[in-house]
Amino acid sequence: MNKQQLVEQIKLKKSFLCVGLDTDTKKIPQHLLQEEDPIFAFNKAIIDATAPYCVAYKPNLAFYEAFGVKGMIAFEKTINYLKTHYPEQFIIADAKRGDIGNTSAMYARTFFEEYNLDAVTVAPYMGEDSVTPFLGYKDKWVVLLALTSNKGSHDFQLTADTEGERLFEKVLRISQTWANDENMMYVVGATQGAMFQDIRKLAPNHFLLVPGVGAQGGSLQEVCRYGMTADCGLLVNSSRGIIYASSGEDFATVAGQKAKELQEEMAVELSKL
Question: Which of 37, 64, 92, 159 gives 58 a disulfide partner, CB atoms 3.0 to 4.6 angstroms apart?
Fold first, then answer.
């Protein structure tokens, strides 16, 4: 999916919601554990309930790899289900890959050829040659880690060099020599608040993938105030706040309600553009 198509979906649905499929068998409703494939059964129900209100899904690979072959089968079934029934959805593999060039090339092949996903999260620590193998695919996206929402982000990302440039700013500045806003996004945690202003000074037109709204305490309104562009420029992810809103048999219905509530808030923000 290219940038124009993504923007069109956002306008059509009046939503920039991304639903995170961080499916943990210890947290899903217990009655699903009797299913042949509990992870896929949960995902399918969540997708059917939330698809009208979101424009993207972000399965986190760790939650599938943890179960070995069974988990990856559930991941593949989830991807196939989305592509068959909801082909308009933008699918992000939250894999945070990043390695030497020939290894990154294989990771890129995995997500863009084997699974034919739209985007993959990539760690920039190893530099240009670890990222560029992901950039050679038409209408596919690299989502580069820039300024994350976890406590440890302060350990490295906010450290400044002798000229006062912080590491996340260096990542934003240098990475834009590798790609443009048509095939690169950045991960910026919702809990960073006003720091979005600093992000936008360096990356005024790039889409930002924003985790941390909801369960992690990030404010949607604050993210929009500082981070929204004329084309929206945001994909705001919610995982736990939607998919685990209920642990009962009504889990999918409640997830749909939570997604709808977020979509309605997003529609208000989009109306201000």
Answer: 92
Among 11, 14, 77, 96, which one carries the catalytic annotation?
Answer: 96
* Backbone phi and psi for residue 15, each to the nearest 5 degrees, phi listed first: -155, 145
Residues with Cβ within 8 Å of 213's Cβ and at least 6 positions away in sequence, in order, are 190, 219, 220, 223, 236, 237, 238, 241, 262
Task: Give 28's contacts (C-beta < 8 A, 6+ positions apart).
Answer: 38, 39, 42, 244, 247, 251
pTM here is 0.96
The verdict on whether 96 is a catalytic residue reads yes
Question: Do the Cβ atoms of 188 and 147 come closer than 8 Å?
Answer: yes
* C-beta atoms surrounding 253 within 10 Å: 14
* Average pLDDT per block of 10 residues along the chain, 273 residues long: 98 98 97 97 98 98 98 98 98 96 97 98 97 96 94 90 94 97 95 87 97 74 93 96 96 98 97 92
Measured distance CA(64)–CA(239) in Å, rounded: 15
